[in-house]
Amino acid sequence: MNLHPLGRTAVRVGRLAFGAAGIGNLFTPVGDEQAAEAVAAAWACGVRYFDTAPHYGLGLSERRLGDALRGLPRHEYVLSTKVGRLLDPIPTAGDDLANGFAVPADHRRRWDFTAEGVRRSIEDSLNRLGLDRIDVAYLHDPDDHAEQALDQAYPELERLRAEGVLGAIGIGMNRTELPARFVRETDLDVVLLAGRYSLLDQRGLLELLPLAEERQVAVVVGGVFNSGLLADPKPGATFDYRTASAELVGRALQLKEACGRHGVPLRAAALRFPFGHPSVTSVLVGTRSAAEVEDAAAMLDRPVPDALWADLKERGLLPVDVPTPEKEG
Question: How many Å apart are CA 28 and CA 21, to the nearest integer?
Fold first, then answer.
């Protein structure tokens, strides 16, 4: 895959990134072998950017991802994880499904956006990963901790970047207002924006993406399928991890029908759409099996004709002024 820098850094990533929440048993269990096969398939497809977090499966995602990557050339891939949630061991008490993960509840998440918390989080992640370094660290969901994240966690990330411990620093959220504030007030390299720049939701375009372009901040877009609705639109499908409304399902079905007229799978259009904006460097897809990884890679490689984007705008399925990818046919 062609590699592009994250902002003004030397960290370079391809268009497709592997999101490792799924191999942390997001919602349903995944076996160790299936998790390893998913990472191996991503590598075989040319994926060289892998993202995880302590939150995902109470550390299971980091452990599995580290196991899968450990034998691969370290200089050939980029690894990101997140800070803001520390994991404190506790006696096992049931499962963690209340937080979305099918794992034993043997740790307690504790919000911590202090400088000391950032250092400990990075150290703990390195221990779970079993790797020598982390390339990118994101402030993870500081919604209710904005001031502490801005005043304490961010300066510590900046110091770690200056020391060469980290290659790039960023913020990862499924909202747009706070990341926009960080882009305005700090020297972030990258924003990981989940679910807010898709065929169904372009809120990222209101303020965040123009700011990122102005400040030369890279944007990695997650949630291009909006947690499932754009992958397989039907009644009962999920949007932002909740059952989608009839209105949203209807709109997704209209998108699917329009894509079909141009011979394009909806998944392919959903993956390609974010690249219409010049700040978008990569799309991050959460996958839990080799088949899902291979499908995502194949869909991203599918040509999407310019006529499709024009059709979607003409039918009111996309705003007329939304940027779309360069013409491919």
Answer: 11
Whole-angstrom Cα distance, residue 5 to residue 122?
22
Q: What is the mean pLDDT of residues 31-42?
A: 98
Classify the phi-psi angles of 216: left when phi > 0, otherwise alpha if psi is within -120 to 50, otherwise beta.
left
The residue count for the chain: 329
Task: Mark out the alpha helices in 196-304 (DSSP H runs).
Answer: 208-215, 246-261, 266-272, 290-301
Q: Are 318 and 199 in contact (CB under 8 A)?
A: yes
Contact 82, 56 (CB under 8 A): no
| Strand (E) or helix (H) holding 168 | strand 168-173
Cβ distance 2 to 15 under 8 Å? yes
pLDDT for the residue numbered 329: 40
Average pLDDT over residues 107-119: 98
> In this predicted model, what pLDDT tens digit does every residue of 156-200 receive, in sequence order?
999 999 999 999 999 999 999 999 999 999 999 999 999 999 999
Cα(324)–Cα(275) distance, rounded to whole angstroms?
A: 7
Quote the CA–CA distance of 108 and 85 in Å, as a whole number: 9
Give the active site residues. 56
How far CA 290 is from CA of 43, 57, 185, in Å, comes to: 10, 19, 40
pLDDT digits (tens, 9 = 90+) for 246-256: 999 999 999 99
Q: What percent of the chain has a predicted confidence (pLDDT) above 90? A: 97
pLDDT range class, residue 203, cuts 50, 70, 90:
very high
Tokens representing 197 are 């720049």
Q: Is the pLDDT of residue 293 over 50?
A: yes
SS3 breakdown of the chain: % helix, strand, coil, rounded to 5? 40, 20, 40
